[in-house]
Design goal:
The chain has 1057 residues and is mainly β. 13% of the residues lie in helices and 33% in strands. It contains 15 helices and 66 strands. Strands 10-11-12-13-17 form a five-stranded mixed sheet. A four-stranded antiparallel sheet has the order 5-33-32-31, with no helix packed on it. Strands 6-7-8-9 form a four-stranded antiparallel sheet, with no helix packed on it. A hairpin with a 6-residue loop joins strand 40 and strand 41. Helix 3 packs antiparallel against helix 4. The N terminus is likely disordered.
């Protein structure tokens, strides 16, 4: 029995392995969550719980996924996947880590959904406009300009605002007052009545107002008039809300739909032919008629339909639902919303809300409706389901007074009495934004009204003033490829382990990108925050780097905070800080240590394990202060040197192992070395003159740096790098402290500003080059546009410099190089990317350069009729050789990285975009674009036959050199009128010559030797026709028969003779 049982188990095991081998499917580019089923995940869970420690190592987890899920992995693919799953980085994966990885995989969304969730719908402050009214605005509407085909749009017309005293203002589309009129009752001479509602009848050029006198006044506005044409008096109740409906067919009646204070709905119908009853009649300047007469049909031209007592309270709002052809009205009663058609054929839909509804809105092109009321709730309805709403949004603290829908019912905007605007995402049932930016000038306790223009996507809120809020604009493919962030991008990194790109921006977002598909993998919003007056405010991210193993991320922010992240899961693992309100400008992560520099003017060291970094168990350890100004950038060559530089041009080289400086210079005078005094004091008086070692002798520096200014609060002292990214290049002169009185009689006035040293904007080590005194291994970009070359050897110093820009006031703000340090890529403040050839440039070795080989890659080197500005400026600069120059962004380029395996350059800028380029300068795409993306193979170099295109924003401002680089010389040259005429003449001459009309005669035989053409004769060709038949109709017109003498039948005797 035992033998039979063991043989059975072996057979089952072999059959199981055979079945799994046959069913194994490669994972490919898919995620585990896309392949594993619920049954397979349950079986993997059982494997975890069979182990005593409830965790699996890499080999065990791979075996479990192969056997239970039937998935195979390519070489090295599971190694990367295991690093993603293993959050603790201890070599073992628990069930919680595994299932968390699957859940995070399901959260990856499409590009369009991610783009909508990045920036806030209302991202700008409101533009306040004076209302030109004595009282708060009660109604904002739009007066369309109707065309001949009875079509209209929100881009052609004018805004109309009205207050309760009857004053009506006409506004242009840019909110400039055009004219002011007033609606007055002709029977009242002393006091005026309140105007309750206003509506425009644009197809007949009429404006209708209703007042507390229970009348309707129709004003003729043709030819910029405002004359009372028709007045309907003696209504039973005052009309408090109106809307107007007209069709494109002129034979269909127009409808003026009204709701009154008695809860009734009144529909006034008339024909729009020849302006209907509103056309001027001879001898009748004003038509006054009672409502009863119109209701009984005694007044020709009008027809009234009434729906009585639909509501128990006065009608707050009434609209016509074009999508369903229904009339919708609301009131503060139990029957809050009523929806019905005019003919009563499709029934009545009643929506019951306990406290009623103050407002509602419908979605154009979608079956969706939303309501708001005094209960502070926003309800979203299916119009055909009246029992309960689809979703209820909570969040308002006062009653909701106005609603609008955007993008076919995807976005809902609500306004409450406390001037709080909330933006709701209806598909995801979430609040996207709470906007509290409406100031007190619009009114505290006044009535507010809201109007939305779908063409300009502007939200107009009326009170004591008019607030104009631009909502998120629609992106047009003719003007942009889309944005990657909602603010300027400050950090861009490439992870070679997971083959992803990571960007951080001034919007405090961390985004992980798949560069091969252009999609977002994950987003961490509000990564750094601070509390201000009880409100959480996002903080700009200014620095970032990966750990040596490329599994964790370190970010530094504007307020001095540092955070480590597991970017695969978006989890913050640790919080640190260098100093409060002290911007972090650079971070370096070496084995076991984290180094940060910033406004505190020294290097701060942390332990990456979270333990003590300084003596006595201190959380951090500051290095000695060797700078007299803010540190702007830092670069490290692991494990040898750390280089730091400041705003006034100081350059210090540090030993990474000991943290001690071994060289100090000032880039304004690079040949003079500043002596470093090693002592036990942590701070030295910086006002004492520096000792400079020049040509082996100690001399005293002529200029002494000013004392450091006192620390300033965060809201007053601006970041150097942030201001550059947002505003462009800064001037080379800055305000400093007042001079102290000089011992001489000359008194320096306070208005004199000292010129500071050259600021260092970025640095780049060349790690593939050896550490040698004559080998340039450190590149330093200065504010004057130069790039200095230094040797970080203990015996090395300044070697040389070259110009890297071709415009006045421009300078390099970012640099990158390939793994072999063959190319140098620079990004400037004007948005230009330049590529320099570093081969043989200060390498202490001579290497032959094959320029024809580089011309195959870089179209910039191709011969042209005239040289561009980039080539002319650097014509006398022989080394390094300029290989490429093109405009990549409209504004500052804040970061560059180069992917060596695929020869792809990634650039980020202050224009919110991250773009991919080939080595030769071809544009590949913008990360996060809404346009179709051409997939890039991650295992191959980008093909030169890749589809050539130009960013739309660059197309409008690019130079001829940029056009040649981006299009690879494949572009249509624009000719002048004279050149076009000359070219047309040449083409005409060529066509005529080829036809043989005026050119050389054709040689014989003309038709070749295949057809024998009869010989050409000069004599007349005789044609003989057979005329034996009595009648030949075909050839009768070709022959002329001889005259025939007819017998004279008058004298028959003559014939006999």
């Amino acid at each position: 029995m035992a033998t039979k049982k063991s043989m059975t188990s072996v057979t089952r095991g072999q059959s199981r392995m055979l079945r799994y081998t046959q069913l194994l499917t490669p994972l490919g580019n898919r995620g585990l969550q896309q392949v594993l089923t619920d049954f397979q995940i349950t079986n993997i869970k059982k494997v975890f719980f069979r182990e005593e420690s409830r965790q699996l190592n890499q080999a065990q987890l791979e075996k479990a996924i192969n056997e239970c899920g039937g998935i195979s992995f390519a070489d090295g693919q599971f190694d990367v996947l295991f690093l993603r799953i293993n959050i603790k980085r201890d070599g073992y994966v628990t069930w919680d880590e595994f299932i968390s990885h699957l859940i995070l995989g399901f959260k990856i969304q499409e590009v369009s959904d991610e783009a909508k969730a990045l920036d806030a719908p209302i991202s700008k402050k409101p533009r306040m406009v004076r209302s030109n009214h004595r009282h708060p605005i009660s109604v904002i509407t739009f007066n369309f300009q109707v065309k001949s085909d009875r079509s209209c749009s929100y881009s052609d017309g004018s805004y109309i605002t009205c207050s309760k005293d009857g004053f009506i203002n006409y506004w242009s589309l840019d909110l400039q007052v055009e004219r002011t009129v007033q609606s007055k009752c002709p029977d009242l001479k002393v006091t005026d009545t309140w105007v309750l509602s206003v509506v425009c009848l644009p197809d007949v050029s009429v404006i209708c107002t209703s007042s507390t006198e229970r009348d309707l006044r129709f004003y003729d506005t043709s030819a910029k008039k405002f004359e009372l044409r028709v007045q309907i008096t003696s209504l039973e109740y005052g009309v408090c809300s109106m809307c107007y409906v007209f069709q494109k067919d002129v034979n269909e009646d127009c409808k003026l739909i009204m709701g009154d204070m008695g809860g009734n709905i009144i529909i006034l119908l008339f024909s729009p032919l020849n302006r209907g009853p509103f056309r001027s009649k001879l001898g009748i300047p004003l038509l006054r008629v009672r409502y009863d007469a119109v209701l009984k049909g005694m007044e020709p031209g009008f027809r009234i339909v009434e729906f009585r007592r639909l509501h128990r309270d006065w009608v707050r709002q009434i609209e016509y639902y074009y999508t369903l052809n229904f009339i919708v009205s609301c009131s503060v009663s139990h029957k809050a919303i009523v929806m019905r058609d005019i003919n009563e054929n499709r029934g009545i839909y009643t929506y019951c809300i306990p406290r009623g509804a103050w407002c509602f809105t419908t979605a154009d092109g979608a079956v969706l409706m939303a309501s708001g009321g005094p209960d502070c709730l926003v309800r979203v309805w299916n119009p055909y389901v009246t029992r309960r709403p689809l979703v209820i949004f909570h969040g308002h603290h006062t009653g909701v007074i106005s609603l609008i829908m955007q993008d076919k019912g995807e976005i809902l905007c609500s306004l409450s009495e406390d001037k709080c605007i909330k933006i709701w995402d209806i598909p995801n049932q979430a609040c996207m934004q709470t906007y509290l930016g409406l100031g007190a000038e619009i009114g505290e306790h006044a009535h507010f009204t809201m109007f939305y223009n779908p063409d300009s996507r502007q939200l107009l809120i009326g009170g004591l003033m008019i607030a104009v809020l631009p909502l998120r604009p629609l992106q047009s493919g003719e003007h942009t490829d889309g944005n990657s962030h909602s603010a300027a991008i400050s950090v861009v990194l490439y992870n070679p382990l997971f083959k992803i790109i990571l960007t951080c921006g001034l919007d405090s977002n961390i985004i992980v990108w798949d560069p091969w598909s252009g999609k977002r993998i994950s987003v961490v919003k509000e990564a750094h925050t601070r509390m201000l007056h009880g409100e959480i405010i996002p903080v700009d991210i200014t620095a970032g780097t990966f750990d040596p193993g490329y599994q964790l991320l370190l970010t530094g922010a504007y307020d001095g905070s540092l955070k480590t992240w597991n970017f695969n899961t978006g989890t913050c693992l640790r919080n640190m800080r260098i100093e409060r309100n002290c911007e972090v400008t650079g971070v370096v992560w070496v084995n076991g240590r984290i180094l940060a520099v910033g406004w505190n003017r020294h290097v701060t060291e942390f332990s990456d394990s979270g333990g003590a970094a300084g003596p006595g168990g201190a959380f951090s350890k500051p290095w000695s202060t060797r700078h007299s100004d803010d540190v702007l950038c830092a670069s490290a060559r692991i494990p040898q040197t750390l280089a730091t530089s400041t705003y006034n041009g100081e350059l210090v080289l540090w030993q990474l192992e000991t943290g001690q400086p071994y060289k100090q210079y000032n880039v304004a005078n690079p040949t003079a070395r500043i002596k470093i005094n090693y002592n036990l004091e942590k701070e030295r008086n910086l006002q004492k003159p520096h000792k400079i070692l020049k040509k082996g002798k100690l001399v005293t520096a002529e200029a002494t740096p000013p004392p450091p200014p006192p620390p300033q609060p965060l809201n007053r002292r601006r970041s150097h790098r942030k201001s550059i990214i947002m505003k462009g290049p800064q001037p080379k002169i800055e305000m400093a402290l007042k001079f102290t009185r000089m011992p001489k009689e000359l008194v320096v006035p306070d208005t004199i500003m000292p010129i500071r040293g050259l600021a260092v904007r970025c640095m780049q080590f060349l790690p593939s080059r050896p550490m040698h005194p004559k080998v340039g291994s450190l590149l330093v970009a200065l504010e004057n546009g130069d790039v200095q070359v230094w040797s970080h050897h203990i015996s090395g110093s300044f070697i040389g410099a070259f110009q890297a820009v071709h415009g006045v006031g421009d300078y390099v703000l970012s640099m990158a190089s390939d793994s072999n340090n063959e190319y140098l890529f620079t990004g400037s403040t004007e948005g230009y990317i330049k590529t320099f050839l570093l081969k043989g440039f200060y390498e202490n070795t001579e290497e032959k350069i094959c320029m024809p080989l580089y011309r195959l890659t870089f179209p910039f080197l191709w011969k042209r009729m005239f040289e561009g500005r980039a080539m002319r400026t650097l014509k006398d600069q022989h080394r390094p050789i300029l290989l490429n120059s093109y405009k990549a962004h409209r504004s500052i380029i804040s970061g560059l990285i180069y992917i060596h395996e695929n020869q792809i350059l990634v650039s980020t800028g202050a224009d919110y975009t991250a773009r991919l380029w080939t080595l030769g300068g071809r544009y590949l795409g913008t990360l996060g674009t809404f346009k179709p993306w051409d997939f890039i193979d991650p295992d191959k170099v980008v093909d030169t036959t890749f589809k050539l295109k130009i960013p739309p924003d660059i197309r409008r401002v690019m130079s001829s050199t940029t056009c040649r680089v981006l299009m690879g010389e494949h572009f249509v040259k624009k000719l002048t009128k004279k050149q076009e005429a000359a070219q047309a003449e040449k083409e005409l001459e060529y066509k005529e010559g080829t036809r043989g009309i005026y050119g050389k005669r054709l040689e014989h035989p003309i038709l070749g030797n295949y057809i024998n053409v009869p010989e050409k004769t000069t004599h007349k060709f005789e044609i003989s026709l057979d005329s034996t038949f009595p009648y030949i109709p075909v050839y009768q017109h070709l022959i002329r028969p001889a005259p025939v003498e007819l017998p004279d039948i008058s004298n028959p005797m003559k014939k006999d003779k």
